Queue: 3 jobs
Job 1
Amino acid sequence: MGSLVLGVCVPSSCDRQSVVSLIHRLFEKVNITEDNLVCSNDPPNGQKGLTNGAIVTIVILSFLCLLVLIGTIIDLILMSKKSSFVNLRTHNGAYNHLVDTGEMTSQPESRRTSTYFSLNPTSRTVFLAEFSALKSLGRIFTLNEKIRVDNNDSFLFLNGIRVLSLFWIIIAHSLLFGVSYTSNVLDILVSQRTIAFQLISSAQFSVDTFFVLSGFLTAILFIRQVKKEEKLSFRLMFLYYIHRYIRLTSAFLLMILVSINLSPYFGQGPVYPIEQGFESKGCRTRSWWTSILYVGNLVRSDEMCLNIAWYLHNDMQFHWIAPLTLIPFALGRKTYAFLIATLFVFLGIGSILTILLYYPNMSFNDSTNNVSFFIMNNGDHPVVFFVLGYS
């Protein structure tokens, strides 16, 4: 079912109750209240000025930007000193044949290496230099690969799978997210019948490739680490969990913090959620902690923060239970490993069948059947326009 999005331009003297009265006159049997209205001139986050959360988020982002700036400056200084030292050694080496060898060797070792140690950075300096934007961009965009036939440490074929799947996801999201604002929904409904459009509407299967890649790499890296240490230790298991959690959670929580506190300030218009941004009230006040524990898809899923992050919740949960199969395999008990893996497969099939039997009328392409009204004040000249959206 499609949803009707009605945009109305009214004089600035109109208030919310006046608009509600107007809608009740235009439509019969419509239960619309002031809570259903989204006004483009509403203040972000429902108040004038910055909220406390927005101020805290800006302070954190400013600190990170300052850290990157300091790291970049230190990195440039270290590279400059290193370049000067190399040039100095090359310059001195070019004239070594003109200097008496005995005179050179008679100099104290500390004096001959004083220049080198003066350029040797401290551990604190090296730590700050790791935040350099130049160093990070260099690592991201480097294309140098040590490709060898006998190199078993890298799986270059995975890069092609990642790129194809990523393109598939981006194209599908770019088109499907704009369906709600199309000029004619019937064109979309007709296009869905073509084979070419199935590549768009079936893009959810492309996400499965990332689950497969994640499971493959998790198994490979876990087994290799056990073989490297020649035993399964508590330290290995601790690092297995804590390393992945720290690596993902820092950036994940920063994105949620920005989405909750700053997204209301990113746009404006009759269909932009300027009052609360892209996150629901439940995410802001009650369910934000589910993202820290990666259980947002299981606990209060209707209030999950950053809905697109459902993948991270699933992926982290798979990472938690993976050792149940990997530990027996690493210990040489392959029979138990295969039995546990088979059990997981049947549990997945059984859970899907149970859901389908318990909810026989469930639709995988369910959409909300409601009427939303968006109001925009446009001076003293009222204009009414209708936008039919499909959600």
Job 2
Amino acid sequence: MGIGVLLKYKSMLPVTAATPMVTMGEGDTPLVRASKLGKELGAELFFKLEGCNPTGSFKDRGMVVTVAKAVESGSKAIMCASTGNTSASAAAYGARCGLQTVVIIPKGKIALGKFAQAIVYGARIINITGNFDDALKIVLSLTQNHPVTLVNSLNPHRIEGQKTAAFEIVDELGDAPDYLFIPVGNAGNITAYWKGFKEYKVRGLALKTPKMMGFQAEGAAPIVRGYPVEKPQTIATAIRIGNPASWKSAVAARDESGGVIDMVSDEEILHAYRLMATREGVFGEPASAASYAGVLKMSRQGTDFTGKRIVCVVTGTGLKDPDTAIKQSEAFVELPPDLAAVESALGWRKSRV
């Protein structure tokens, strides 16, 4: 049974004697070696499965700290803008702590698996006919003018909780990897991982820090293009963000680590999504595949990963967006309940039975 990030990493987090030790077992997620895909690169390749958190995404790490600090401060309500995962996590931890949760989401721009979570956890949901950036502007105004706590990644407690994933990687590998590949949407996660790796190095718990390799979707790549994208478009809904809140800190993580922030197309994302599932049994939501898609892109462009240790962050479970999985599948065979017909369709020899 996981003890949760607040207790496990208490000395590295903004925890006081008054902070409630809230947990639903978040953190301690698997770091899975991708033997077949790694062999093709000549590298040690690992997938950090953040979809194994309680609500199915990395958001729970930051949310547990943020909500605990909200309770500590006496807050009775929390609020966020979301493309899905943040709303699910906020609603779950809000329910756990008896707080009212309000989420503002762009209508029709959220995967149904995530929307269902926010509904069932009892959040007050407001749909707007705009995008995530529009929703965040409204939330920022409301949280500044009403007694409700902002729980988007602009709240520094979110970054504090999310950095614990970097701690876990070092704890398991014995040091930081050479490269950390990660999807970039609102850019809080790349910021958090870099903060975590730096803190572990300063404390002597890691000998090095990794190159931070962030990847945006081509249709939602404001950091790569150098300007906000007014109408971001990508199949990867979790990173469909045109003006990241943590833009500057993400660029700092890139520059300080000697890494890159680049972009991958939806086709590259879906190719990586399928390879992860069919070759290694790892089912992440489309945005999660941007990390491995980035590895493949850099390899094609000539980066030599031979002998390197690479970690790809799989930010959320594929069950967050089952529609994409179904749409990407081949047509299903439909047959009568007849043994011979099934054998024939499978290309197997006729049964003797």
Job 3
Amino acid sequence: MINVGEIIRSCRKKVNWSQEQLAFEMNMTQSTISRMEKNKVACDVNTLMDIAHKTNAPDVVMSMMFSIDMSVVAQLFQAIPMVSSWGIFLWFM
């Protein structure tokens, strides 16, 4: 089972943001971010993609959702530079 809360936390940590900073960027409360990270409130796909976009972390999302090593994801992004990372992400879904 995919741990969406852990994906959100990893995206946030990638850019060294606090929950407060991510909440500000997402126009949410810190409490909502905390609850999403603890899987106490659902996070829809659009919100998850927006978090990954704002934190520049689509690689984190792909790696964790598909259990792929981060180095493999990085190589995939380098091998296909003309395709945006979101295009690759959607291709896998």
